[in-house]
Amino acid sequence: MINKIYSSIDEASYDIHDGSSVMIGGFGGIGSPHNLVQAMSGKARELTLICGSIGAIMALKDVSCIKRLISGYVSTLLAVKEEWARMAKMIDEGEIGVELVPFGNFVERIRTGGSGIPAFYTPVGAATIFGKDKETRIFEGRECFLERALRADFALIRAHKADRMGNLAYRKTARNYNPIMAMAADVTIVQADEIVEVGELEPDCTHTPGIFVDRVVHVEPALTKFARVRKRT
Amino acid sequence: MQQRGMTRELMCMRAGQELLDKGYTYVNLGIGIPTLLPEFVPQEAEIMFHGENGVLGLGRVVEESEWDFDLSNASGEPVTTVPGVSYFDSSLAFAMLRGSHVEASVVGAYEVSEKGDLANWQGPGIRTGSPGGSLDIAVGVKHVIAIMMHTTDEGKPRIVKQCSLAITAKGVISTIITNLAVMDVTSQGLILREVAQGITAGEVQVVTEPKLIVSEQLKEIAL
User: Has the ipTM of the complex gone over 0.90?
Assistant: First the structure.
């Protein structure tokens, strides 16, 4: 019998180790697996974190576990949370390396990483610093540059419903990067709001088939409710 | 400093008129001021607002007390949705932009040049930045409207001859709506099309770096 359900967050994330690369789902914190992120801090250091924006890692208690950040949205959020002032300082002092990637290229790098395509040409960011020092080619009169696929040791994602086979369904805009990241990691760990019986998820409405999922842990959506991350400036 | 002219809400209202005049159906709203816009467009017009976070059919921003925590606009604010709304993953969200399925986008901006160059991902004095979806919008969307305060809080022009900040994309902006004016980017230069109530063309020119071409049909913004 296939059973990917783990009884606790600690058991589900036992092997995240020093130096791991970890993808974290969510857009500005919406749909992020905040409980899994919170549990990760203190367990491992020298982490490479791959997340759309740093809103995805707002539950991290200690930002000194980050060695490298691959993300598309960093600076605007740094002033929002007090703990992030420390992250800003570490970035300024070079203790945390940051690789900024425009969102569309970011998600395409992850999608190809999970789809067996090693690299692709993109027009997004050509002739800007995002395409600097990268192999370029002209397609249909437009300058494009080569982006490499992105994979990680772990993906931490959040789903609304999951079954023991790892089939997942998301809710509203909490879907975002989650199903894409689920494809691109050696081990995909899901924080699910609700566990349902096999057969209960409508096959036509199963957003992530269980083949992409390794572990599922049920978390009451307590930490998924968080204060708004950013104020209009 | 209290900025003169229109409030952000009025700027959104003016941007809404622009979308209705052009008859667009699918319009992306960038992070920041633009996400306020759905409140100012009648729902009967059925403009389906796109959020790069994975939604087509955004409604107005609501109070936090009404927040469904699994739903936000691209700015991370609680919102409603309109009938016919759909949700999708980020890969599809950016395919809609890059693949030119979305007809227009309203974006925030730090600076816009007279040639329509856009700078909106890296603020002044910042080492990192927040490119987000702005570069995808710039590549794929045909009509990009910038909505921005005309000057910095210190009164420095943000409509400039050449952007001093890192560029998002060259020549991508076709319309600029500020608290003071509406301008079109053309091959001849910036055409001043409309001014906010009580503002003169001369006053707009004083806080604009490039020389403005005042339209013969110059009029006051009517909302």
Answer: yes
